[in-house]
Amino acid sequence: MIRVKICGITEPAGFDAAVAAGADWIGLNFFPPSPRFVTPAQAASLSARAAGPLRVGLFVDPVDADVARVLGVVALDILQIYAPALRVAALRERFGLPVWRAAGVAVRADLPGEEPGIDGHVIEPKAPPGATRPGGNAISLDWSITAGWEAKRPWLLAGGLTPENVTDAIAASGAGAVDVSSGVERERGVKDPALIKAFVARARTTPPPTMRAGTGAAARP
């Protein structure tokens, strides 16, 4: 079954909708320039609403103190990091949590290799020139880039996904897990419960790719 991450949750309705829809992961964004930024206290308040999906904390080029400050307030299951591979692996060693490295790609040669010490990857388009933040920026990846990829680590597909295109994206890319943020929002930074429900339902009813070592859903701790 295709697994789903709802990222950039900022308010109770979005959190509750992700839980009710059966999302596998909820993403909490700790990068201040993002319209989906939450403080550690806000994240803790949201996370306390219900058990269920694993909590993924998103950080961009963090120093150890940044991560420690968040973990001192809210428990996270996975760290999603925008940083070079060696730095991401060092954070895993420092905090003892599984780590996913976000990898921006434009061509097949950009896809990550072995990268020891990393548990999974979030595969998304490279940020466009002039972007103020990394990530998919609501731009869709050329899904053919990952078709047939023998990934060294489990991975999620991100960038420009919506309830309308997620079925095609899974079929074309071979992804076993998908990550959505702006594609389930009614306005910037505010999730739409109906879109979350539709996205999860459509992803779940899409046949999974033929599973190969390292293909599909990113590592569960």
What would you say this structure looks like, in words?
With 221 residues, this protein is of the alpha/beta class. It has one domain (3-204): TIM Barrel, CATH 3.20.20.70. It is 26% helix and 21% strand. It contains six helices and ten strands. It has helices spanning 12-21, 40-47, 64-71, 85-95, 166-173, 193-204, and strands spanning 3-6, 25-29, 54-60, 78-82, 99-105, 120-125, 155-158, 177-180, 185-187, 190-191. The strands form two sheets. The protein has an eight-stranded parallel beta barrel with strand order 1-2-3-4-5-6-7-8, surrounded by four helices. Helix 4 (85-95) links the parallel strand 4 and strand 5 (99-105). Helix 1 runs parallel beside helix 6. The longest helix is centred in the C-terminal third of the chain and has 12 residues, at 193-204. It is globular. The relative contact order is 0.18. Mean pLDDT is 92; it is low at 211-215.
